[in-house]
Amino acid sequence: MRIQSLSEKIPIDETIKAIEYIKDERNVENLKAYVEEIMPFGKTTSIKYRNKFIQRFVELDGNEVIYSPLIKFINEIESYQTKKEVIYYIVCITSDAVGEVVKAFSQGDIPSEIEEIELKEVFANAMPEAKESSISKTYSVVTTILKDFDIIQYKRNSETKKKTYCINENIRPTYEGILFNLYYEFIKLKGNKMPEVETVLQCDTFKYFLMSDLMKKRYLKWMLDNEYIENYVMGGNNKYQFSVDSLEGLIKKVTGLD
Fold first, then answer.
1. Please, is 48 exposed, middle or buried when counting C-beta atoms within 10 Å of its C-beta (0-12, 13-18, 19+)?
2. What predicted TM-score, i.e. pTM, was given to this entire model?
3. 151-178 pLDDT per residue, tens
4. DSSP assignments along 170-182, one per residue
5. Which CA distances in Å does 161 have to 118, 168, 247, 251?
6. Which of 35, 65, 73, 190 shows its CA 20 to 30 Å from the CA of 196?
7. d(Cα 26, Cα 4) in Å, to the nearest integer?
8. Where does 96-167 sit in CATH, by number?
């Protein structure tokens, strides 16, 4: 595993506010100014996060922000939890320091319970050319992000005072959040509307939410029952087909809005 440094935490509520701002304001310079203004950081860090926000969430046409399906879904879906889940997914796919670490937990490459000193060593090994200060900062930021998104928890031994991190085994994401992220992964990122069943079961979306095989099947059954995906057996191949052709169409079906 190799990861890049990460220096900005994710202020969830302020990120949602910035996305909501795009409903009425499409000029990118005005958006940048607004993002800087509402961030709970000092000026330098606010500018860094502003740049990361634009990179993660914003598509541009010149100086105009495109009201993309990603932005529209986060704005139109009512559930705060679903908004969080989509934001978390986007953070995972745009910051390998978050995404790769979570996948390592999911795949068992990092134990489900690990002492702080051992987890710091994982980061050091994943950033072999980085300075110690950068490794320490990335470790602090990533563990905070994963805690804020309820992916990991920590406990401290009352006698030794040592901190131990453990994965949250009670994650229950919303059906709509997993649905959008799965569509985003296969339609937007992979361009694959008819993946094999095993490809879906091993997808990043499920790994980012630490989903067991039983949980995967439960969510896929909901998608089948609600006709978001279909199951095809062709010859020896067992495949899922995404029944909605685009993210725009998915949003319309989920929210009932054009």
1. middle
2. 0.95
3. 999 988 767 778 899 999 999 999 999 9
4. T----HHHHHHHH
5. 15, 21, 48, 48
6. 73
7. 31
8. 1.10.10
